[in-house]
Amino acid sequence: NVAQKAAREYIAVAGGGTHTPDSVDKLLAERGKSYGSFASLAKTAQEFKSLLYRELGSRNKRLADDQAEALEMIIHKIARIINGNADIADHYLDIAGYAKLVGERLQGRSL
Description:
By secondary structure, the chain is an all-alpha fold. Helix content is 77%, strand content 0%. It has five helices and no strands.
């Protein structure tokens, strides 16, 4: 499966260490328990992003790079909540963190 191969390669690179196919499979299985299936999460996130950019476009509104990235990361976290374990505190703390980064910049206080 192409998606699984891409995920394995991403995890191997992002993890910064040497991963065996078995260790990557184990990590993917653990993440699946917390976040739901990758395919389902991706579908949910992409639907939210399509809505976001469609609505921005209909208003001729352009976001700064940090605003767009923060909203996309928040959408990713929301997709994890919807598709996986909604009781993981880090999802909510991460959402608050992304929003805070943009808010701080808009108030002239970059973190």
